[in-house]
Every structure is written in C-alpha cells, then in structure tokens.
Amino acid sequence: MMNRILFFGFFCLLPLFSFAQVEISPMVGYQLGGSIDFWEGKFKINDQVNYGLQLAYPIREGMAVELSYTRMDTDAEFRAYRGGFEDRSFDLAVQYIQLGAVRSFGQGPAEPFVLLNAGAGWASPKVNDIDDEWRFSVMFGGGLKYWFNDQMALKFQARMMMPLYFAGGGIYGGIGTGGPSAGVSVGSTAIMVQGDFSLGLSIRLGQ
C-alpha cells in the first residue's frame, strides 16, 4: 500500500517538471548493501547492481531541484550470535525516493556537481512473514557530467545513502525461533549506511 502511495506522489510531481527545461537522467550502477551488528546477530544486505531515474528542474544558474528514484534487487542474510535466533537468508528490494538540490560548477563540457537529497528509504523482503521497513533517509554525493552538446551528457556520480535505521521487530519479525508468532525478535537498534556508484545519460528537454 505504501509503495503505491509513494509512486502516486512521485508521478504527481512529474508535471511540475514539464513546464521548463528539464534534465532527465536514467542511471545504472553498483550499490553497496551494507551490514549492521545487533546484540542478537549480524544482518547483511549484499552488494548488487541498481538502477534509477533522476529529474532535475533548474531554478537558477548552477542550481537545480532534483527528484530521484533508485532501486536495488538483492538478497540479505542474518547470522545469529545468540541462542533463540536462527540464521536466515531471503531476497530483498531496497528503494529510495528523494527530493533535494544539485549544485553544478563550471561552464565547459566537463561539469562537476554536488548533491544533497532527503526522502524515504525502504527495504522490501520478498517473503510473507517479514514486513517492509520504512525510514527517513538522506543522500549526499557528487559527480561529473560531460556534455557532448547542449542536450546530452554522460553522467557519473557517487552517493552516500544514510541512514536506514532498524529497530526491534520490523524487518526482523521472522528471524526469531518459531517465527513471528513466537514473539522472539531482534530488540536492539542500529543504523545502516549504504553507497552507490552509477553511470547514465543526462538529456535536456524543453529547449
């Protein structure tokens, strides 16, 4: 249900990017999944290819508002440190929807930039007994665009994604002995930091 609400909001914002020169950037890259140590055990999301779409709306020279979506389909594993908890592996989708600012520098074909975004990050286990985990998230990073002409550029970027914050229950509802109905679940808290490196094409529309 929450997925549908966020995607509906994402597409409702698209018309705001259609009345001026908009930059659209389909991206593909490699995302670092990250891991966290709880008192009960270690949870790890494995690194994997990710993909996404970014829309940038210029508000003044060298400054733009950016709306972005990123997804990684991977697998995760929990390795128990204590009795009463079992090892477990499952497929997982990690997604981000972010809104923020991009600051560009320079006037030549090579255009470095930095970015700062905020929004929602969530993990969706592809099993029935573990719920999705939603958290506020922040991204910061930078990169370089190389313009072949006025409409198209090659774009490289690196980003830090933080935090994905996990507390008792949530994504770990199905890890305890006897499953979620037994009431045995991870009760500690931790912060997971992720990052990615991606490459894509930036295309200017509206000229």
From TrEMBL:
Domain of life: Bacteria
Keyword Translocase found: no
Keyword Calcium: no
Domain Outer membrane protein beta-barrel: 11-159
Keywords, sorted A to Z: Signal
Annotated signal sequence range: 1-20
Name under which the protein is recorded: Outer membrane protein beta-barrel domain-containing protein
UniProt lineage: Bacteria, Pseudomonadati, Bacteroidota, Cytophagia, Cytophagales
